[in-house]
Design brief:
The chain is an all-alpha fold and about 475 residues long. The chain has 20 helices and no strands. α1 (about 1-20) packs across α15 (about 350-360), α7 runs antiparallel to α10 (about 180-205) and α10 (about 180-205) packs antiparallel against α20.
Amino acid sequence: MLAALGFATIAVLLLLTMTKRASVLVALILLPVLAALIGGFAGDLGELILGGLSKVAPTGIMIAFAVLYFSLMVDAGLFDPLIRGLLRVARGDPLRITVATAVLTLCVALDGDGASTFLITVSALLPVYQRLGMNPLVLSGVVCLGAGVMNMVPWGGPTVRAMAALKLDSSDVFTPVLPAMGVGVAWVLVASYLLGRRERNRLATLSPQGPAPDEGKDERDDREPAAATTVTAATEPEPSRHATPATADGKRQALRAPGDGPGTVRVPPLPRTWLNVFNLLLTVTLVVCLIQEVMPLPVLFVLGFAIAALVNHPTWEQQQALLDRHAKNVVLVTTMIFAAGVLTGILTGTRMLDEMAETLVSVVPDSFGSHMPVAVAVSGMPLSLVFTPDAYYFGVLPVLAETAQGFGTDPAEVARAAILGQMTTGFPLSPLTASTFILVGMSGVSLGEHQRFIFRWAFATTLVMTAAALLTGAFSL
């Protein structure tokens, strides 16, 4: 009963979001609540939802301040040299931009954290896509592919869970699939080339001349300051950089911020060059601290934003204008994360996920025992849409590994197969992971559009790596 209810909830959720019959926010909240009521958990509903919200609260806090931080940095022009450099190298060619997106994602994703990967890459590259008129689904899709493959690293969530669940170490699980991962990286570059070529042809059809930016022109003159957060955000130029009140003789007074009255302390603005250097050093320090886990991620972004806001916008009026300008983006992303907490809280607290895992294992035919690694590898990516990482790796994987062992297959082979797709290539598409909503929210696309656009490419990544794993002997057929 619970298993059927859980599968039905996930199926209806995917159907509603992919067909745009309901917003993701509404579906994530109301569908699991309805399932809990049908399952007889009305009395525990408040506790279940609160438990789910509590688990995603740190992520929600981190994302709120991370969006504010990177939005501030885009306003300040931190990424402008990178944008101009990419445009100069790409020469206005969407194909080169798309391949550069894949390369940047593969590098940034080495830390194994999907949330920080999406925050950094989308913040840096979305203005480029907007400048050239490229489809933001290409951005979210290519970032999805690159981050998915790199999530296989030993310090990434899926591999760590696989090793912990089966009591294995990195040499048992990750090292044998390293060649397959290398093939996966190569496939991501090929896929980005194909997607980029398709996007170049699309833009050429719309405009025979093609989008060719003026390399000698500052890109910030032609784009919105908040371009790094969402394409739907309507923003205005920052008052403190474009308007100052006039003095009695008609001259502009640079030291007074808009809204300052008589007697207000005037704060002289920092020279632009030194401010850019400070922002760069602060961002590099923040990224290093994120990778080294010096402090919890939410704390780092809270402190980083506060420091950046104080230095870049020293007056109260400027700080309020900053918050007003980017509040919509923060709300759009964080509400999705908390809504996902409602879904996972109910599915986990009612033991629906546990029952789903047991049901899945029970329907595996005994004849599949000797072919279990291949079956696990191929099914892992689609099952990312159904199971959370914990539910799969701690609930499903041990039973599958034990079943395979009964047929003479090493459990380590099942673990290797699992990390080729389950919450690796599949996690940036799953509604069960909060980081997915960071990717789609900051790219300005809907979850359903993102899934329809990139699912087959992500699944192909798993198939390519599975074939490579078979050829290199990571597991047997």
